[in-house]
Design a protein that fits this description.
The complex is a heterodimer of chains A (about 600) and B (about 600). Chain A contains 30 helices and 2 strands. A two-stranded antiparallel ribbon of chain A has the order 1-2. In chain A, helix 5 packs antiparallel against helix 6, helix 14 crosses helix 22 and helix 22 runs antiparallel to helix 23. The longest helix of chain A has about 30 residues. Chain B has about 600 residues and is an alpha+beta fold. Chain B folds into 4 domains: about 70 residues, no CATH class; about 290 residues, no CATH class; about 55 residues, no CATH class; about 170 residues, Jelly Rolls (Sandwich). Helices cover about 50% and strands about 15% of the residues of chain B. The chains are: A mainly alpha (about 600), B alpha+beta (about 600). The interface between A and B is medium-sized, with 33 and 36 residues. Chain A: This is IRE (Iron responsive element). Chain A: Keywords: Membrane, Transmembrane, Transmembrane helix. Chain A: It comes from Aeoliella straminimaris. Chain B: This is ABC-type transport system involved in multi-copper enzyme maturation permease subunit.
Amino acid sequence: MNKQSSFIRKVVYAGILICLLIALAVLGLPATYSNPRGGTYSLARMKVDNQLAQSNLGEIDPASETMKLATLGLRGVAVNLLWNKADEYKKKEDWTNLTATLEQLARLQPNFITFWKYQSWNVSYNVSVQFDDYRDRYYYVREGIEFLKQGVAKNKENREIPQLLWDLGWFIGQKIGRADEYVQYRELFKNDDEFHGDDVPAGADERDNWLVSKMEYLNAISAVRDRKKSIGKKSEKIFYSSPAKSQMSYAEAIEEEGQFAKGQAAWRVAADEWSDFGDLEIEHSTGRMLRLGHEEEVAERVEQLEDQLADLSPGLREKLVEEKREALPEEQQAALAKSMEERNAEEVQLAYQAEQAIEVNDKEFVDRLAKEKPELRKEAGILARQLVEERTNLIYTRRYKSDANYDYWALRAEFEQTDTAVEARRKMFEAKQAFADRQAPELAKQLYEEGFDKWREVLETYPDLLDPDGVTGDDILVFVVDYRKVLDSLGEEIPDDFVLWDVIENFDAEGEFEEELRHRMETMGTSTADEASASEEAAEEQPAEESAAEESSDEQPAEPEETPAEAEEQPSEPEQPAPEENPKAPSDEESADPETSA
Amino acid sequence: MIQEEPLLPFKTWLLEWDADRWGAFWHFLLVMVVLAMLSLVIGLIIGTILHGPVKAGERAYRVVANAFRELFHISPRRIWAIARVAMQEALRRRVLVAVAVFVLLLLFAGWFLKTDREPAKLYFSFVLTATSFLGLFIALLLSVFSLPNDFKTKTIYTVVTKPVRAGDIILGRILGFTLVGSLLLLVMGGASYLFVSRALTHTHTVAAQKELPERTSRSDGHSHKLEVRDDGQIIAMYEHGHEHSVEKRGDRYMVSPPEGMIRARVPLYGELKFLNRQGVEVEKGVSVGKEWGYRSFIEGGTQAAAVWTFDGINEDTLIDEGEDGRYLPIEIVVRVFRTWKADINTPVQGIIQLKRPGSDLKTEPEFFFADDNTIDLKYFPESLTDTNNQPVDLLEDLVSEDGQLEVVVQCLDRAQYFGFARGDCYIHLRDASPFWNFVKAYISIWVQMVVVIAIAVTGSTVLSGPIAMLFTVSFILLGFQRDFLMGVATDKVEGGGPIEALVRIPTHMNLISDFKDQHFGIKLMRLVDDGLQALMQVLASVLPDFGNLSTADYVAYGFDIPWNQVLQQLFLGGAYVIGLAIVGYFLLRNREVAK
């Protein structure tokens, strides 16, 4: 009996074992040549389908796999300890052990994108600044970039790879090209054989940090376009405008180094790329597809639709306005009846309110139309809906354009190609050289003045450049500052007939020319008095206009976007400049007299 | 080298009698006395409950008297016999596999270690940490299961029927396992040294051409700038922690193996004080806002200065350069902090002067460009000139009667700062042998291992194998985190005691903010915490500070480990062995078998 029951028990155990083994075998069927995705229910297939296999993500690293296994399932604990250690090493300035710890972490969590982003940033931006010698700083900037590259190699097929590639472009472009020591960094980067390898000869254009950065941005875009990877929460307008921006920075940088012919050509490329960017369909966070370069077309369509709607019942809108006007309180009617000049402050307010009140929106128009001509009701409804749609598109397009500073960059790329602009820049360059290297202030002064004449021409042709949103005015102001130094050395002052006073007036945000401007005001007393009264008048008109603007922005469809989504675009750390253009940090402060800063 | 706490002189460390710090010996004595009293009281209480006070007293007396008698009957021959058995047992359990694991680790270490700008530092840190972890782990496995196994298999009964005393068993085991462990460490040490020196050695080539090329070839991730010295000697300049000498043979250049890669500097440290911008002596300089308060800073272009006072300067301190006379070799590390960028291409400037303590006699300032975070060597010849351009003699005039000398460093550039810690300036007496330095580092690992063995053997007298292992592992882990434990116990670490921390985690409270309402629950929590913290403080005071026992940093940074340090550690190890052996003896006696 006892023997028998023990035998039965063993058989049952064996049976259970076999069942489990069969299940295991089915699940565990590996992928083979004939059946590359493994069995129908196998884990191998799930791995492929969900892109979880290491071979689906990027390079396979045996060392990494060994290390993961060696932690015996305690990878999370090990990673935590190492992150803490890395923080500790950073605090205690032990850079050797910090980089060694990061290497170990990279083996343990090679497919965790945030790790690469965070730690490469840490090395490139936070560790590098700890050094006094710019060569040491550059070394760590490059270490961070190399680290990011390593991350890219290990995550080639990762869904989030465009973000790493974009970061790579950003580091190579911005960290090298926009640092205080960008002149040295760019030079070091160009001569960095270790980074570029032997394939690209020293001094080649392919070694320019802006072009390398552009290439990485393009890789990021191609990963999205060709391999359907995700850009995550990054804003598309920034993502897709980056290559063209890098091209412009490249053109800007080489012109600053005195390569004008090349620079002009580079601007030409940049203009094309910028207009390509304008043609590109960009997804707004609401899902709408926008094309930044096609604002006018949308505006035109809006106008057409408005006309079509009005044509359905000519005179109806005017009639509605008239009805509303009659319904207004008397004092508003009276205020409205007066001409602009005759109104006093109170009347201005009243007239403004009245204008608001008598405006007829599309809904009112369509409702009335439906009442009066029921047969047109359907058509009117369709038109009105289309109108709302197109208006929204227009508003979003305008907003995105202003975020990307689209018009300014288009204009910039256009004018920089002109011979006049190139000539203006060349004169500036030569003047600077004449003053700094050759100690010839007279020559420098002459060159500056010739150059400023050219700038005047440019500004006449492209008056929008004086728009304070752009940076060209700031650029020119830097030249004026240099010019003033030359004049100082000659014991002279900026002459009254200087051609770029308007640039000084518009762009002297730091108040560097305060004295000169005051002096000028005094000498030109009469004319400025006139200007002053004119501007007072303008100020009086302003409240009405301002509130009108506010009102109209209220009308815009509610847009839940911008804040959360935009905030995500910027890589995590606070030190980073906004991804929008941030050309050359003004270094004037730094070169200021130490005694004042002490 | 980073030295957050200066090393105390041996005598002070051992015997100092101060309100703030008790010497190690007194600390040891206190722990032993408290422990003895505690066990006596507990023993008496339990005895009284079981057998009444008279019997309990009698028994307690017997135990103590017995212990003293046995102390004088400890026999080295018997201890050795037990030790031999322990060794045989260890070898039978194939501990040598550990060596294979270690060698495997070294074989693949190259995969994980990136050659950085300081390869020696990285490699030494790695091998010493790896050895110490693996060594402790093996020591643990070796010693923790042995006694419990004997109990389980009942072999202990055969042993105790022989005239062997409990003390012999404990000491014998500790000795046996220590010997096996030492053997393993020896092998590991040899392999490590070989690995590091092999990994660091490399050479470069120099293209054979008429003009000397600017740089050597790239190898091991770097290349050197070539320079010809005044005496015609070609040098591949300092890079990645070393240089090479280059010899020209005919048309070809021969590059030597790396020089100065592995070093063991013997420094003479001084005491550091600061002068503030008005020139008044202060304890610390300015903080520039770094999280790590190790260095404090002096402002440039003011009277602020860092002043080191060195003791015991005499003829032997100077190095003799033959015809060139004798020099005082001062090495200094400057940390530069700029509040404005200034000229990116020009380093910040400073001056260094020697000064006679207690007088105004100073040497003419020597200007230098600060090479940030790098050891910079300054030679001061015997005959110098003072600030009035009068000749002064280094030993005669500048060193005071009691052998003291001051080194004054200032920053010249306005609004720029120099940062210093005590260990950033020292007199470089000589270079010791890097090999012996490495051996000394292994001695500290050995001490750690012995302590672990002693803990494990003691624990395993009453605990079963796995439990004893957990006990020892906790001991080691807490030992590594001793500072933190002490911080929590004494409220130096934010976030309260253990229970409070446990409440803060799930409620997502930060470490600083206080609990809003102080109701009964909170008060109870604080009360329990106070009790736990007191316990933690007691525990922390007997824990070995494993973190401080490591001397890997000395080797990694290229400094000689002072014998003082080694001696302190040896004493510490000895104290643990003695203390734990006594505890172990009583515990084992308490078990039925060993009476």
